[in-house]
Design goal:
- By secondary structure, the protein is of the alpha+beta class.
- 29% of the residues lie in helices and 27% in strands.
- It contains 13 helices and 20 strands.
- The protein starts with a strand and ends with a helix.
């Protein structure tokens, strides 16, 4: 029977982050994810790396500071997937007074280190570059910095790094049961193909997201008082609503904020809602009521109102928040809680309750710190310094790496080069290989996706289905007509 130091249950951003950190510290790691990596919440976010400006109103100063510090780290280690953006907040005096917003932005600028991003400032909305899309009566606002991210690809890049450091990454593999025997965990795994596998693990990290309590109670046989509050956040994608690369943060009458973010060049992403959720976390849906809510929220600000019929895509994710007893879903803490259970110092299980995309790397460090007493030879923290696969630009930087790629493949379609670089960074040359002309890439399905990249997704990134490729390894599904999607599915044998 295989024996490993650590079994990680869950292949969302926190799970792959733990696997990466642990493997790089010298532990033998197996990660089991019952579906695809980023198959649930981690691919259904607002696509931001941010401190959480609105959390200041909830006095979550520690969480905001940690997230702001992590924002700087992720710009360094994931530069092809995380990029700076300016966020603009139109001022609506009856919702929040100017001095409150100014104070909040001052704290936001100074709670965490800000090495490269510009600070906040007051701006005019009736002059370029912001005099587009908004109602004419909105003249004043504020501008600050945060970052945008390709969330699902951040998961994939982190999983690839974990594999480079020796972790065995097993998507479509469910932990059926685990019980303590002779000082270790005796674990039963089962793949979606029905194949069974047994292993022994010296420790388990339960990072199952919305299923964390089920995994702890049912699969691991551990009772617990902690609970998870499932909160659904829904987003809509609309045809491009305004010109410019800036995003908007819009105050709503219910004291929540709604984001409008440029998305995939031709669209605007709008979100999010906060709704209590009791259904299956694997397949949440954005309801018609949520779509109408988001349209009403942005129509308060838009010169040309939008309607639900204009929505081209809707998606929802279930946030597994730690249940702190707060009644309002929007006020439930986004911080994380770690629980460690062990028997006489052996065979621990650590469960992660809560957490957010931005702080996944720091969460993984705290997981390893909590497990350090069980692994006395554990190496020191390292993940804040080594770039993720694709982001090792070196001293030349991202722009130079992109130019080098273009010079190496002068006869390939520019859209293909642009999109492959955006998804893979410095690994783009591994995707394109020895291609010298468009025909060498195989079938071009549209929107920059080629047969050669499709093979790379399968061979190197664990993709199996059209959904894996069209909505997680890329967002090409948003751009392709149905016939092209069907060609992708046929090429994958499904």
């Amino acid at each position: 029977m295989q024996i490993c130091d650590l079994l990680v249950i869950g292949g969302g951003i926190n799970g792959v982050g733990v696997a990466r950190d642990a493997a790089g510290r010298g532990l033998s790691v197996v990660l089991a994810e019952k579906s695809d990596f980023a198959g649930a919440t981690s691919a259904r976010t607002s696509k931001m790396i941010h401190g959480g400006l609105r959390y200041l109103e909830l006095y979550e100063f520690r969480l905001v500071r940690e997230a702001l510090l992590e924002r700087e780290v992720l710009m360094r280690i994931a530069g092809h997937l995380v990029w700076p953006a300016r966020f603009v907040m139109p001022h609506v005096p009856e919702l929040r007074p100017r001095w409150i917003i100014s104070l909040g932005l001052f704290l936001y600028d100074h709670l965490g280190r800000r090495d490269t991003l510009p600070g906040s400032r007051a701006v005019r909305l009736d002059a370029p570059p912001y005099a587009t899309g908004l109602r004419l009566e909105l003249r004043h606002g504020f501008e600050y910095s945060d970052c945008r991210v390709d969330d699902a690809r951040l998961v994939i890049a982190t999983a690839m790094s974990a594999r480079v450091h020796g972790a065995e990454m097993l998507p479509r593999t469910e932990c059926i049961s685990a019980r303590r025997e002779n000082g270790v965990w005796s674990v039963q795994l089962r793949g979606t193909d029905g194949a069974a596998r047994e292993l022994a693990a010296r420790a388990v990290v339960n990072v199952a997201g919305p299923w964390v309590k089920h995994a702890l109670n049912e699969r691991l046989g551990q009772p617990s008082d902690e609970d998870v509050r499932l909160v659904k956040g829904s987003h809509i994608v609309l045809p491009k609503l305004y010109e410019g690369d800036h995003a908007f943060i819009l105050q709503n009458e219910d004291r929540r904020v709604i984001f409008m973010i440029p998305y995939e060049e031709r669209y605007t992403l709008v979100g999010t809602t906060d709704e209590p959720y009791e259904g299956d976390p694997q397949r949440p849906e954005a309801s018609d009521a949520e779509v109408e809510y988001l349209c009403r929220a942005v129509n308060r600000y838009l010169a040309a109102p939008v309607a639900p019929a204009q929505v081209v895509w809707r998606f929802a994710g279930v946030r597994p928040l730690y249940d702190d007893g707060t009644g309002d879903p929007s006020a439930v803490t986004r911080d994380y809680t770690l629980r460690v259970d062990h028997v006489r110092g052996a065979a621990p299980v650590l469960s992660v309750f809560g957490g957010k995309l931005t702080t996944y790397r720091r969460l993984a460090e705290e997981v390893m710190q909590s497990l350090a007493p069980f692994f006395p030879d554990l190496r020191k923290a390292w993940t804040g310094h080594e770039a993720l696969p694709g982001s090792d630009f070196g001293e030349l930087g991202r722009a130079a790496a992109k130019s080098t790629l273009a010079a190496r493949y002068p006869n390939l379609p520019k859209q293909v080069l642009r999109d492959v670089f955006r998804r893979h960074g410095t690994l783009a040359s591994e995707v394109l290989g020895d291609a010298r002309r468009a025909a060498d890439l195989g079938e071009h399905y549209g929107a920059g996706l080629t047969e050669r990249e499709l093979r790379y997704f399968v061979e190197r990134e664990w993709a199996r289905s059209a959904e894996d490729v069209l909505w997680r390894r890329s967002k090409v599904g948003l751009h392709l007509v149905q016939a092209a999607r069907e060609r992708v599915a046929a090429a994958l044998g499904g």
